[in-house]
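Q: Hand in one record:
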Amino acid sequence: MVNVIHLRGGLTVSTDAHPSASPTAGRGVLAVLAAGGIVTTLVQTAVVPLLPQLPRLTGAAPVDVGWVVTLTLLTGAVATPLLGRAGDMYGKRRMLLLALGALAAGSLVCAFASTLPWLLAGRALQGVGAAVVPLSISFLRGVLPPQRTGSAVALMSSTVGIGAALGLPLAALLVQYADWHAMFWAMTVLSTGVLALAWRVLREEPVRSPGRFDLLGACGLSAGLVFLLLALSKAGEWGWGSRRMLGLSGAALLILTGWAVQQRRVSRPLVDVRLAMRPAVLLPHLAALLAGFAFYANSLVTAQLVQAPRATGYGLGFSVVAAGVCLLPSGVIMVVCAPLSARLSAARGAKATLTLGTVVIAAGYGLRFADSRQLWAVIAGAAVVSVGTALAYSALPMLIMRAVPLEQTAAANGLNVLMRTIGQALCSAVVATVLAQHTRLFADTAGVAVAAPTLDGYRVAFAAAGAVALLACAAACLIPRRPRPEPSPFQETEQDARPEPRLLARRPSANDVQEPAGTDTGTGTAADARPGPGPAGTTA
């Protein structure tokens, strides 16, 4: 069965009943995309246990090793909005395959690398995989029935926490009991397998956004993000008031301001700035930035806290592997909460789910502030934060997709994930600064001095993360309940000649329904491309 929906500006949507629309095939699509999201996050976190050994293994200076993480963050932040917009224009399946291919290629380069420059080249390619999750969320919106979209989006959002929870212990085991290249070989096999499955299972969605890719806007956004994230990543090392920090921050502000002006003037913008400034879109983006900050503090601090020496009075002296195992319950909880958050959004709305999630995150940090000396308290506090994160992360894409036109869902979701990335980078810099300011020497059982943060330093980090979660809650409360559907920037005026409707997925059939002349079909939002209840406009 085929439903034909004609939109303005030459956009055409066909809801072909292709195999991915069936329940079995739909589950296959979701499984492949969820695997892609998990592998992407695994790749991002798996390098952490390797960092202390890289100067010895590659012959690089210790100060240069940090680029193994920073470069991946930079390329991921740039690739996410660019591939999101390209997905709206040229096809989400195509961009998903590109992102997964870059992930596999980068893992292969790292597997062969023996020096830091080659390792950095591979990590830069791996960063492109950061676009997989937002592209997948937008792709699912077009291939799953409405009643299954919420749970699927919630599961995709939870892959961020699942991959982070699994990545640390698995990578630590490989590094401890095998050659360090084995970790990258494992990532190569996993990412290549997901790429092959995606090539086989995914079918291209027929919705396209017209126009040409805004190359100037892409360059401006990329330059501004590189300067901004580089400043945030190095703030703890350079100092917040250093010349390099202030210079990069100022350059980022100037470039992004000029970029925003340029985007308002072009007819086919990379990011629709006018739409992004609407409260129904701006506030979810702000909440994403704040939620990203709050979530990342949980991952950063938990592993460090349980690995702290026992001489500190609070540390458990765990190995990297044991510290990673402490994060596993958080990953499992995010999987369990995915369908629950979808049901809550369906019953109470995505706004209520986001609000509740941020409150739960703040409560979790309250528990962590109260007691972080005992293992059960550490795991319980981290788990509560993960519950709130699962609720918040599942609601954010739903809020975005209900507020933007259909042909901008991938770009808008990419921008939302970018906001989370910026929040995580800011969190990393703030937590590093706080812990550095609260570091002192402790004497271990052998009388050897050991440098470690005090428990008060961790409590300050917990308090800061909890306060940011409450700010995210305030932003969530201000989100409009029923946003007015926004017109597409690609729609035509009444004086424009309307192009002949066309079907991208197949040739027009004699049975397709054509609208009478002068009928205003509207632009449509991401919630509109659904089969109608009756036989009108349907062909066998």
Remarks:
- Strands lie at 2-6, 12-14, 439-443, 449-453, 538-539.
- The chain has three domains: 15-213, 215-265, 272-489.
